[in-house]
Each structure stands twice: as C-alpha cells, then as structure tokens.
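Blinded run. Sample ID left blank on purpose so nobody reads anything into the name before looking at the predicted structure. Input follows.
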Amino acid sequence: MGSTKHEKSFVDFEKPYEQNIIGFKGIVLFAVFLLALIIITFGLMYALLNVFEADAKAEKSSNNPMAQSDKDRLPPEPRIQGAPGFGVNGPNGRVNLELQAPQSEWWVLEKQYKEVWSKGMVDKATGAVTALPIEEAKKMLLERNVKARSGADADKLFAESKLRYSDASSGRVATDRKR
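Blinded prediction complete.
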C-alpha cells in the first residue's frame, strides 16, 4: 500500500499548488434564491404601502379629534424668516412676512416703534396711557422737578457703580474699579 495518492482528498500532492474547487452550482442557487427573496420583499413592501395609503385616505375623511390645524403644525416662535408662519404681531394684527426680504421684519418693527415714539400708545382695553411720545415724556419729567439722590446712600451707590467683577473671583466679588 505504498501509494502516494489519497482517494478521498481533492489535494494533489504532485502539484506545487492547491487546486481551487469552486461550487458554481451553489453560487448560482444562492444568487437565484437571493433575487427571489428581494422580489418577494419588494412586493410585500409595496402591498404594505398601499394598505397604509388607503388607511390614511380613510382617516382624512373622518373627524379625527387629534388632528392638528395648520396653525398647530407650525413650530413655536421665533421661526426662521423663510418658514411658513413667520411674521410680526402688531397693533393692527399679524403681519405675514413669509418669503420676504430678511430686513422686512425690522422694517415693520421700525414703523411700529416710530409710531409709538411719535404718538404714544394707549391700552385699548383700559384706555390707560402705556407709552408717551419722547418729547412729551421729557417735558413731564422736567415739570416734576425730580431731585437727585444725595447723602450716604447715594455715595455708596455711586461707589458700587464704579466696581467691576474680575475674572479671578468668578463674578462673586467686585474688585476692579472703572477709571
């Protein structure tokens, strides 16, 4: 029995390399089954999508108590300038600024401020004056003849106003003096 060949082995000991045996049939079967599985999965997902769409259409026609209105779907203020619902609340109602120039918010607010500065503002509910025009407010202050504080309390307040918090104290102790 001095034979050098092995009957049950794919190895040929007379060659300097090992023979590569590929099971081509196995690879083809795996690819076919994988393709079939992918097609079945896509078919099932398509059927599931149709079921969900039919359910969504049925729910839109019903009175859903949890359905949100368009206003409820908007994010809370402040919003990005180009976003739906972006605007400014003013005395005449809400000014819609969707898809306007970035400066449009400032233009609307500046117009409102100038109106308050020139005419003042009255509360519509109570009729009380909530803001005076600047010139009228200056006149009223000068008519009152307000006296400046004096004495020890005023000196202490003045000295404290000159103190500054240093980084070394982590904002706990006012040490530096303003010059």
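Unblinding after everyone has recorded impressions. Strands lie at 87-90, 93-96, 121-122, 129-131, 163-165, 174-177.
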